[in-house]
Amino acid sequence: MIDQISPVQLARMIDISAVQAFNTVKDVVGLARVAIEQKFVAAHVLPNFVAILGDQLNGSEVLTGAPVGFPSGGSSARMKTREARELIEAGVQEMDLMINVGRLRSWKSTIFLMTRSNEDASFVSKRARTLLRLRPAGRPRGRLWNGLN
After folding, report:
1. Pair 127, 75 in one domain
2. What predicted TM-score, i.e. pTM, was given to this entire model?
3. Do 148 and 96 lie in a common domain?
């Protein structure tokens, strides 16, 4: 099965990133160049570099991406929603939302991105197009947003 996938098909399934605190504008430009040359599906940078990456990827098939709640996933649902909105306004086409692993492991009432506001939940589901529902046996219903656009 894997031998039937071409290198280009494989690259179209892979995101690459420059999301370390020490990454510079030069790194972002280099990331964009490699993403275009190798035909990766998306390139991800920290939120403050989204506009630069978007300019570099303009006209290519590579999606501009960024993380939400990076690196720990420990931000509140409200903060993640605000960050996601800001990223969309900046031109992000794909987001990777960091899950709060401690909350998930604890099965607390707010697992990942469960909002009290229907407006926020519908905003997220319309933008993400994927809303994953978790309901382990005997637990209340929760919502997880997997960050796909």
Report:
1. yes
2. 0.68
3. yes
